[in-house]
Design goal:
The structure is a single chain. This protein is about 20% helix and about 30% strand. With about 270 residues, the protein is α+β, with helices and mostly antiparallel strands. The strands form 3 sheets. A 7-stranded mixed β-sheet has the order 1-14-5-11-12-13-10. Strands 7-6-8-9 form a 4-stranded antiparallel β-sheet. Strands 2-3-4 form a 3-stranded antiparallel β-sheet, with no helix packed on it. The longest helix has 11 residues. The N and C termini lie close together (about 5 Å).
Length: about 270
C-alpha cells in the first residue's frame, strides 16, 4: 500500500500501558503498530510545507515552520524551550489569546526515566503525550503550577542537580538504569526546591509506565537523513518516542521532518 502527504508527528494513545501510534498522511490514518515487521519505504518528494501557514519553504525551522512563522508565532516563542522566560502572566506575549490557553493554564513539572533521570515541564493537557514523545518508560509528577513561568522556575532549581535532556541514542537503545526509583527521586528533589515554590509540589505519587512497540532495540544507532538519502527502505522493528526503528540500527525522527512531503509504502 502507498500513502502520500506531509509528515506530522505521530499521534499516540495508551492502552494498558502499551503505546499505540498513528501517522496521518493527507486523509489517511495509518496504524503504525500494525506495520511493525513489514518492509517500509519512505521517499521525500523534495517539498516542504510550513505546518502553520501551509506555504512552501526551502528549509524547515523549529521542526516544521517557514522562517516568517518561526520568527513570529507563539508556538515558537523562546518560552517554549525555556519556560522560565514566559511573561504571559505579566500580559506580555506574541499572542496573548494563545497564551491564555497554552501558558496561563496548569503546567506539570515531572521527573522521567527516558535515558537517565530527568526533569521536564509540560502543559497539563499534554500529559502523557509529552512523556511518550520523549520516550520515557516511567514518569512521576513533581509539581503542578497555574502557569508556565512558575513551572520553569521549578525546573531551573531542579536542573542544577539533574539533567533536563534526554540522550536520544540511549533512549533508542533502551540503555536505561531501571534501578532508578522515581518516588525516591521525587522525595530527594523536594529538598532541592526553594521555599517559595514548595507549595506547588503535588501529593500525586502515581508512577506512570509506558511500554513501546519494539521487537528489537539497536545496539548502535544510525540516523536516517531524508534530505541526503531521499529514499529509505528497511524492515520496521519498533517505534519509540517519535522515532521509527529499523533493522540494523537505522532510525528516523518523524518529528524532525514535520511538513516534509513524502510517500510511504509497505
Amino acid at each position: 500500500m502507498e500513502y502520500n502527504g506531509n509528515l506530522l508527528k505521530m499521534q499516540v494513545v495508551v492502552n494498558n500501558n502499551l503505546v499505540e501510534y498513528s501517522l496521518i498522511l493527507s486523509d489517511d490514518k495509518i496504524n503504525m503498530n500494525k506495520i511493525i515487521d513489514k518492509t517500509l519505504t519512505i521517499e521525500w518528494k523534495n517539498e516542504i510545507n510550513c505546518i502553520k501557514c501551509g506555504n512552501p519553504t526551502i528549509k524547515s525551522f523549529g521542526q516544521g515552520y517557514c522562517f516568517p512563522c518561526f520568527a513570529s508565532i507563539p508556538e515558537t516563542a523562546p518560552c517554549i524551550l525555556h519556560p522560565e522566560l514566559c511573561e504571559a502572566h505579566l500580559g506580555i506575549a506574541r499572542d496573548l489569546e494563545w497564551s491564555k490557553n497554552n501558558c496561563l493554564t496548569t503546567h506539570v513539572v515531572y521527573l522521567a526515566l527516558s535515558s537517565g533521570l530527568k526533569v521536564g515541564v509540560t502543559r497539563g493537557s499534554q500529559v502523557p503525550t509529552r512523556w511518550i514523545d520523549q520516550g520515557a518508560v516511567k514518569t512521576i509528577k513533581f509539581a503542578e503550577t497555574p502557569n508556565r513561568h512558575l513551572a520553569g522556575l521549578i525546573e531551573i532549581d531542579l536542573k542544577k542537580h539533574m539533567s533536563d535532556k534526554t540522550s536520544w541514542q540511549k533512549m533508542l537503545k533502551n540503555d536505561i538504569d531501571f534501578s532508578i526509583n522515581l518516588l525516591s527521586g521525587k522525595n530527594k528533589a523536594k529538598q532541592l526546591l526553594r521555599s517559595d515554590l514548595q507549595k506547588y509540589i503535588t501529593d500525586d505519587n502515581t508512577v506512570f509506565e509506558f511500554n513501546y512497540p519494539v521487537k528489537a532495540y539497536p545496539t548502535k544507532v544510525k540516523s536516517i537523513n531524508l534530505e541526503k538519502e531521499k529514499t529509505f527502505t528497511g524492515k520496521l522493528v519498533g517505534i519509540k518516542g517519535q522515532y521509527l526503528i529499523f533493522e540494523n540500527g537505522f532510525v528516523i525522527n518523524i518529528r524532525k521532518y514535520n511538513g516534509y512531503k513524502v510517500s510511504l509504502s509497505f
